[in-house]
Design a protein that fits this description.
ATP-binding, alpha/beta, hydrolase activity, elongated, Helicase_SF3_DNA-vir, Rossmann fold, hydrolase, ORF904-like_C, four-stranded mixed sheet
Length: about 625
């Protein structure tokens, strides 16, 4: 077998030879090609180590068709030639510069010694030479920042708003909790070490007039190396994160791709259901903890649970799947969904816990107090900050007899910008919520007044199934045997990839036509709720008459009677009665108004028995109550 590079050329065939017999090694290569990764083998950000080792081993043993040699044989031959050339160069050096050489001149230094200080970081950029490093050293911290960006700009970035460094893990950006970026700055000193070694050699080779300048360059290089191992690390990081086209970002670049969903092994395009490699330029920070095994992966236990939870109602399950698909995207939807089951143990809690677990970072718990009207206001801004970027927010079990805060629900489900300041944040943060809000409860919070805009946002999804003791189970009445909760959770965790595929199918379907039309059972539940809590509508039916537009009634008269009716007829405490401004706003949604100096509503008047002064009406109701 040939052992030098000259024989490599002798082994290749001339152009005039059109046909030759395949060598045994080539036949082996044709029968046993290089291993190819299966879809599950290659995570985003690169192939796994085990696969790379297999490929390199195969490449070393497969001959190249042009030469008939394997890569390992070519490397051995090239190394032999390099070693001979190195010794020849050293021999000539001894003849010309023997008086300037330090140490033992009998043998040249090994190649490993020349590069022993160069870090093996896996970067694709080669270490700069001494001349380039000298130029960078002359720039001080700015030069080091440029080198850091060249070496690590694809792996680290700094959020100037959050004032934190982040590191790309191959799929998403994660907080650099152990401050690895500081180690990356220190490693830059090793490039200066290599440049210093090369500069020392230049000094030995330099003429008398060049030595002084060369030694000055060496001092500059050594100074930067020392600084990078100590006091200048913070200054270099600050310089690297400042300005346009630097390693710093403003903070509003995060998670700006509503139709992408990152997962453990890549980034899913929710429109097509295809998996793609992670890309640091997408600036994604959230991901599902599960791997994506393709659009058609199944989770049979979860599928069976959905059938039981929705009592075999295909329309209701179909609607819920479209809602989940909407929640998996980052698109805004002005809705709040209440998963309402008047009885406990109906499966809604474990269903939403499973969905939140599959969505991972995209889902979060929502403090239910943010949705309720409360007398004592707390500092809620840290809880609002936690919703930034979330696609699904789940609140559970509001207290009985609680009331929705219409203003807060509209704020969280609307398209307006929310401003909040987190703990230890120097400046307030502005963002537009994209989370879809889900409340699973046995008691739907009440309304002070049936605001029509709010009622359009509220969707009540009925949960009528029951999970009971095995001996009490009766599937015909939608009473199913209850299983240990911890076992169900573990089973669903094992089927996490299949549930993730189901979520992707739901999102793909939603994105196709954006259809969230409600089935009859959902519309019926919403209508019942509206009738129960539409106190203004009840007041109009009980105390007023509808008339033509020529008849009008003063707004203040209507409100005074409304407030008395709530207090004396419905037993509402005076402090919980809505103010006249809210009353007028709700009336404007139902009737035309006439406003000169005094506000009137057209087409409505009080029934005769409710006309009179407040004292007369109070006496009338008290007499009615005594009777």
């Amino acid at each position: 077998m040939p052992k030098n590079t000259a024989e490599i050329g002798q082994g290749t065939l001339g152009k005039e030879q059109e046909v030759r017999a395949a060598s045994p090694s080539e036949e082996c290569a044709a029968q046993d090609p290089l291993p190819q990764p299966s879809p599950g083998d290659v995570p985003f950000g690169g192939a796994p180590l085990e696969f790379e080792l297999k490929r390199k081993a195969a490449e070393s043993s497969v001959p190249l068709p042009e030469t008939g040699w394997t890569q390992a044989e070519i490397r051995d031959a090239a190394s032999s030639e390099i070693e001979l050339e190195r010794k020849e160069i050293w021999k000539r050096t001894l003849e010309q510069y023997a008086d300037r050489l330090d140490g033992d001149p009998d043998a040249p230094p090994r190649a490993q010694e020349l590069f022993s200080t160069v870090p093996e970081t896996g970067h694709t950029v080669d270490a700069p030479y001494s001349r380039i490093m000298a130029n960078l050293a002359s720039l001080g911290d700015l030069g080091d920042a440029q080198m850091l960006q060249e070496q690590s700009g694809h792996e680290f970035c700094y959020d100037n708003t959050a004032q934190r460094w982040f590191r790309f893990n191959g799929v998403i950006w994660k907080r650099d909790g152990n401050r690895q970026v500081r180690r990356e700055v220190s490693r830059l000193a090793e490039f200066y070490d290599k440049a210093a070694f090369q500069q020392k050699r230049k000094i030995r080779e330099a003429g008398r007039g060049e030595v002084t300048e060369a030694k000055g360059v060496l001092r500059s290089i050594r100074s930067r190396s020392k600084a990078l191992r100590g006091y200048s690390i913070d200054r270099v990081l600050d310089e690297a994160a400042s300005g346009d086209n630097s390693m710093g970002i403003a903070g509003n670049e995060w998670d700006q791709h509503p139709e992408l969903l990152a997962c453990a092994n890549g980034v899913i395009d929710l429109e097509s259901g295809k998996l793609h490699r992670g890309d640091p330029k997408l600036y994604l920070r959230m991901a599902s903890p599960y791997e994506y095994h393709g659009l058609h992966a199944e989770a049979e236990p979860f599928d069976e649970m959905l059938d039981m939870v929705f009592c075999g109602n295909a329309e209701l399950r179909d609607y819920f799947e479209r809602v989940v698909g909407c929640a998996a995207t980052g698109l805004r939807e002005k809705k709040i969904w209440c998963a309402y089951g008047p009885k406990g143990d109906n499966g809604k809690s474990i269903l939403f816990e499973t969905l939140a677990g599959v969505l991972g970072d995209f889902a979060g718990n929502l403090k239910v107090d943010l949705l309720l009207d409360q007398r004592k206001q707390q500092n809620e801004e840290p809880y609002l900050i936690a919703l930034k970027g979330r696609r699904m927010a789940v609140a559970s079990e509001p207290p009985k007899n609680s009331y929705f805060s219409l203003e807060r629900v509209k704020m969280l489900t609307g398209s307006d910008t929310v401003t909040a300041r987190g703990l230890y944040m120097p400046d307030p943060l502005e963002f537009k919520p994209v989370c879809k809000i889900f409340v699973h409860t046995n008691f739907v919070p009440r309304l002070k007044n049936a605001d029509q805009a709010f009622l359009k946002r509220l969707v009540i999804v009925p949960f009528h199934a029951s999970f009971v003791a095995p001996e009490a189970a009766d599937p015909s009445r939608h009473m199913y045997p209850r299983k240990p909760e911890d076992k169900i959770k573990e089973l669903f965790r094992q089927h996490g990839p299949g549930i993730l595929s189901w979520v992707v199918r739901c999102a793909r379907r939603y994105l196709r036509n954006r259809d969230l039309s409600e089935p009859e059972c959902v519309r019926k539940a919403g209508s019942s709720y509206e009738q129960e809590y539409d106190t203004l509508g009840d007041f109009i039916r009980s105390c007023c008459e509808l008339a033509d537009s020529g008849i009008k009634t003063r707004a203040k008269v209507l409100y005074d009677v409304f407030a008395l009716w709530l207090e004396l007829e419905k037993g509402v405490p005076p402090e919980r009665i809505i103010k006249s401004r809210s009353f007028n706003a709700d009336m404007r949604q139902r009737f035309d108004d006439h406003d000169s100096n005094v506000l009137y509503f057209k087409g409505i008047c009080l029934k005769p028995e409710y006309k009179g002064s407040a004292a007369e009406l109070r006496a009338q109701w008290e007499k009615k109550a005594d009777a």
